[in-house]
Amino acid sequence: MSAKVKTAVVTGAARGIGAGVARRLAEDGLQVAVVDLDEDACASTVDTIRATGGTAVAIGADVSHEASVLAAVERVVTELGAPTVLVNNAGITRDNLLFKMSVDDWDSVMGVHLRGSFLMTRAIQQHMVDAGWGRIVNLSSTSALGNRGQANYAAAKAGMQGFTKTLALELGRFGVTANAIAPGFIATEMTEATAARLGMSFEEFKTAALPAIAVNRVGEPADIAHLASFFISEGAGFISGQVVYAAGGPRA
To answer: Is the dihedral of CA 230, 234, 235, 237 positive or negative?
Structure first.
């Protein structure tokens, strides 16, 4: 890979973990395509990156729709250059106990997490192969180990781990690595919304989570962004097909 500036695509980057990763990669010197369902919602992330001298563009895309993904990647190539870094972070929750979960609840979560990651990776991998260098980081979750009320989300996040390991096997000979991050409790709008659904304040929700977290604090998007930065670095080229539980303590 030449020393020219690399282009990264981060999905679900309008807020939360995705925004944190996008900002960190820009700090690392990458150009960043900030992708989210609502292009206007990406403005804050893009503005923050540009305000600190980085390069970023906002791109609206529904990652679960093939035509939308292909159009988004074409825009990335045109506006920033061929992408060789992909962070599949886009995700939604439709939590419910199994007997209450609708088919749409199931399909929507699978569509964004698994279908979306497949479509984005398939569309971008050729640019990595052509460059002889690439980095893929997929967002899993501790919910992959099972979580009450999240049969859809847990299955999708476990699927992300198998997807990651297969990408590592298929693409490794082209200089491409694929790794997954499985966050624990991270303070984002998504976890705040979960607290609201449970009838708790966000502070109460965070406090209730602390006994299960060895480091005695909840995570922040920057914690996940730091790990993503490592996986994407040149020095991490011998690490592939791994799943790291970034949860403030051990998970099994």
So the answer is: positive
Alpha-carbon gap, residue 141 to 173, rounded angstroms: 27
In this prediction, residue 197 carries a pLDDT of: 85
19 pLDDT above the threshold of 70: yes
For the domain made up of 7-184+224-244, the CATH class stated in words is alpha beta
Instruction: Give the span between the Cα atoms of 192 and 130, in whole angstroms.
Output: 41
In contact, 246 and 223? CB cutoff 8 Å: yes
Rounded to the nearest 10°, the torsion over CA 78, 71, 190, 210 is -60
Q: What is the tens place of the pLDDT at every residue in 200-231?
A: 999 999 999 999 999 999 999 999 999 999 99
Task: For the beta carbon of residue 12, count every other beta carbon within 10 angstroms.
Answer: 27
Q: Would you please indicate which residues are annotated as catalytic (active-site) residues? A: 153
Look over the chain and give the mean of its residue pLDDT values, rounded to a whole number.
97
CB-based contact 113:163 (threshold 8 Å): no
Whole-number Å distance between alpha carbons of 237 and 232: 8
Q: Is the predicted pLDDT of residue 3 greater than 90, yes or no?
A: no
| CATH 3.40.50.720 domain span(s) along the chain | 7-184+224-244
Q: What is the pLDDT of residues 54-63, one digit of tens each?
A: 999 999 999 9
User: Residue 158: in which H helix or E strand, if any?
Assistant: helix 151-171
